[in-house]
């Protein structure tokens, strides 16, 4: 009896968790060119600006390459919102061409 109850609960939890993960949107990662970076502290401002955008999962900025890499939920934000965020922080950016 207890084994059946335990198995039933375990099966229910498995079904619920698998449903959740199939509904979650896949994230997207892009690289932005940010040519206005002039010092090693600029990436801090850029990273903070990008992380404030709803839907951003992670953001990094690199001074030597003058780029920012952003992972985001495309159902919640887009490239335009990300480039607007960097521009509003004083660092205009564009989507890096491959």
Give a description of the structure.
By secondary structure, the protein is of the alpha+beta class. It has a single domain, classed as Alpha-Beta Plaits (2-Layer Sandwich). It contains 3 helices and 4 strands, in the order H-E-H-E-E-H-E. It has a 4-stranded antiparallel β-sheet with strand order 2-3-1-4. A hairpin with a 4-residue loop joins strand 2 (56-62) and strand 3. The longest helix has 22 residues, at 2-23. Residues 17-23 have low confidence and may be disordered.
H and E string: HEHEEHE
Q: What fraction, in percent, of the residue positions are helical?
A: 40-55%
Give the CA-CA distance, first to last residue. Answer: 60 Å
CATH topology: Alpha-Beta Plaits
Low-pLDDT ranges: 17-23
In short:
By secondary structure, the protein is of the alpha+beta class.
How is the secondary structure organized here?
Layout (H helix, E strand, L loop, with lengths): L1 H22 L4 E6 L8 H10 L4 E7 L4 E6 L6 H10 L5 E2 L3
Antiparallel strand pairs: 1-3, 1-4, 2-3
